[in-house]
Each structure stands twice: as structure tokens, then as C-alpha cells.
Design a protein that fits this description.
Elements: H1 12-32, E1 42-44, E2 47-50, E3 55-76, E4 82-88, E5 96-103, E6 108-114, E7 120-133, E8 137-150, E9 160-162, E10 164-168, E11 187-189
Parallel strand pairs: 1-9, 2-10, 3-11
Antiparallel strand pairs: 1-3, 3-6, 3-7, 3-8, 4-7, 5-6, 8-10
Length: 205
């Protein structure tokens, strides 16, 4: 007499083992094969040190951006420690500064920049700001990004912010300013294309 095949039945023990295997596999993949996170552009300025009575030029960098066309950025600083003397366009992968206005009484500089002919991607110099150090002390450089706009579809670009600072003190053997000192004036250009690992906080005004 021929016995007909029995239908497969999933026992409770087998179901538990199968579920455990699936969960273990998913956990393994998440731990050892993480999904690539989409990088958000970062608007940054660096923390620098300068001697009194010197001039230092610090760029605003838009890091890891795609198709940047234009933007408006304010920088807030301590006007009793430093003052803004000039704002210029950068060279190479940079936007063109269209207008700027520095209020050295309130401690804020407003900058508008764009690229008229092509979009900018990667690490883009938004603007170079020249500060004059007035006396020893500390000045924050707080970025207030009004907008960053895509060159092609004119939509706003999402971003994060990393604020900078200027520490003014007399050199003890190696400063960041050239020709600076007790009475001399000089200019130092800070190269700000360093990749920082710390994540900035979101800052929109």
C-alpha cells in the first residue's frame, strides 16, 4: 500500500529557529555592511589664532555640496576683538561675491555670493573675509546661513553648520599670522579644507 506524502508543517521550534536566523542575519548586515549615509553639505569656518594688530583672511567653505548656485550668509563676531576690513571672492572652486556689508559696531557682516556661469560642487569657497585683530581676546564666528540655492532648479539646499572662532593673543613662538606682533601688521591666509569628524549642530536663522 502506497503512503501519500504528508504536507510540510512548520513546527513551533522550527519557526523560532528560523526567526532567530533571520534576525541574526539582519543584525550582522547592519553591523558589518552599514548603508551609506547621504552626506549633507556643511557650511564651516575654522578656529584660528592670530597675534594682535594683524590681518587674517578666513574663508567660508561650503563642504561637500552639489550644484551650488548662490547663497546669502551672515557672520556674527565680537567687534571689540576683531573687525571686518574686506570681503573678497575666492579663487578656483569659488562663488563670486556680489555684495557685502560689515557693521563693526554690532559685529555682523552680510554676504551675498553666486556663480553666474556654472554650478559649483565639492568644497566651494563662498567668500574670503579679512579680519583685523584689535586686541587680545576671543571672538566667536557664528554662521547664520539665510539660504543656499541649487543652480539648476533654484531649490534650497539643505545644510549643517560648523561655527569658527578667532583667538587673539601674543605669539609664544609660532602663531598663525604672518608679520603680526606688538605693532606690525600682516596678513595670514587660513586654508580651511580640513575634513573634521565632529558633527555640527543645525543652525538656521
Amino acid at each position: 500500500m502506497t503512503r501519500s506524502p504528508q504536507p510540510f508543517r512548520l513546527t513551533q521550534r522550527t519557526a523560532v529557529l528560523l526567526l532567530f536566523f533571520i534576525l541574526f542575519t539582519m543584525l550582522y548586515l547592519l553591523l558589518f555592511y552599514p548603508l551609506p549615509a547621504s552626506a549633507i553639505p556643511e557650511v564651516r569656518m575654522e578656529n584660528v589664532e592670530v597675534t594682535p594688530n594683524s590681518t587674517i583672511t578666513i574663508p567660508i567653505i561650503v563642504h561637500n555640496v552639489e550644484n551650488l548656485g548662490s547663497g546669502t550668509i551672515n557672520v556674527i563676531y565680537n567687534p571689540s576683538i576683531v573687525r571686518v576690513v574686506n570681503v573678497k571672492s575666492g579663487t578656483g572652486n569659488a562663488l563670486e561675491v556680489q555684495s557685502w556689508n560689515a557693521d563693526n559696531t554690532e559685529g555682523i557682516v552680510r554676504i551675498v555670493a553666486w556663480s553666474a556661469n556654472e554650478s559649483k560642487s565639492g568644497d566651494v569657497i563662498f567668500a574670503n573675509i579679512a579680519f583685523e585683530s584689535l586686541k587680545e581676546g576671543f571672538s566667536f564666528l557664528n554662521l547664520s546661513v539665510r539660504d543656499l540655492t541649487d543652480c539648476f532648479n533654484y531649490t534650497e539646499i539643505d545644510f549643517t553648520v560648523k561655527n569658527g572662532s578667532i583667538l587673539v593673543r601674543r605669539s609664544t613662538g609660532g602663531g598663525t599670522s604672518e608679520g603680526g606682533g606688538g605693532g606690525g601688521g600682516g596678513e595670514a591666509v587660513v586654508i580651511c579644507l580640513l575634513l573634521h569628524q565632529d558633527r555640527p549642530r543645525r543652525h538656521q536663522w
